[in-house]
Amino acid sequence: MRSTIRRIIWLALALLVASLVFARGLTDWMWFESLGYPSLLIAPWVWQLAVGAGGALLSFLILGASLLAARPALARAYLRPELTQSLLARPWARVQHWATTLVAGLAVLLGFGVAGRWMDVAMFFYRQPFGVQDPVLNQDVSFYVYTLPLVRLVLSVLFAAVLVSVGLSGLIYTVAGILDWRRGGEGLRGRPRTHLFLLLSALALLWAAESWLGRYDLLFSPRGVAFGATYADVNVRL
Question: How confident is the model over 10-64, as pLDDT tens digits?
Fold first, then answer.
């Protein structure tokens, strides 16, 4: 009886949320259609879906490759005697399935975070040169408006995916008994050590790339008496 009531409550809440979303969407659609511009309403949805799907796919490829590299350690964790009741009670195929589902879920969350930046991607695809170069780095002004935000977006997705991969791989190696934090990582050697080393190296390279892009921020420096790059920015900080 209680489960039935619970299901009815959840169903009512779901219908309420769906009706509110539908009412808002229908109202917006009628408004834009009355103005003769329904495409202006559809285009942001399409861009958000495309950018979110692209970010999720890129994240899934990175997380999936890391999980594949850590698969032997996951099998070792599955066979540890002290984890018999928690893991061996489930078939190995189901453990693999849940690991893949976790990776897919994390990738979708990262995709949701990227979807809100759809405007940066759309502006890049419709970019036009301004015909004016900055006097410091000799870049067309359109580079700062269209290209730089997209490059930073891609770097942020890569950095987040690799960082999550480091955490997930470290968790797997810890559960497998390969990575012992109490002994300062003693026992971490061979393939697991190479795997984590490559992930941390990728983080370092992405951090370096972001630092290199920081030179373009000097043109927006607020440190001087006027907004923009000062003498110290151009001759010292750069």
Answer: 888 888 877 776 777 778 778 878 888 887 778 888 999 999 999 999 999 999 9
Please tell me whether residue 117 adopts helix, strand or coil conformation.
coil
Q: How many whole angstroms separate alpha carbon 44 and alpha carbon 25?
A: 13
pLDDT tens digits, one per residue of 91-127: 656 667 778 888 999 999 999 999 999 999 999 999 9
Contact between residue 95 and residue 87 where contact means Cβ atoms under 8 Å apart: yes
Alpha-carbon distance of 160 to 83, in angstroms, equals 30
Q: Phi, psi (5° rounding) for residue 133?
A: -105, 145
For residue 119 the two structure tokens come to 């405007």
3-state SS assignment for residue 180: strand
Residues in the chain: 238
H helix or E strand, kind and range, residue 111:
helix 92-115
Cα atoms found within 13 Å of the Cα of residue 56, Cβ hemisphere only: 19
Asked if residue 227 lies in contact with residue 183, where contact means CB atoms within 8 angstroms, the answer is no
Supply 41's token pair. Answer: 């309403």
Beta strands in the chain (DSSP E): none
Q: In b/e form, how buried is each residue of 58-93, taking b as 16+ CB within 10 angstroms?
A: bbbebbeebbebbebbbebbbeeeeeeeebeeeeee
Burial of 3 (0-12, 13-18, 19+ CB in 10 A): exposed
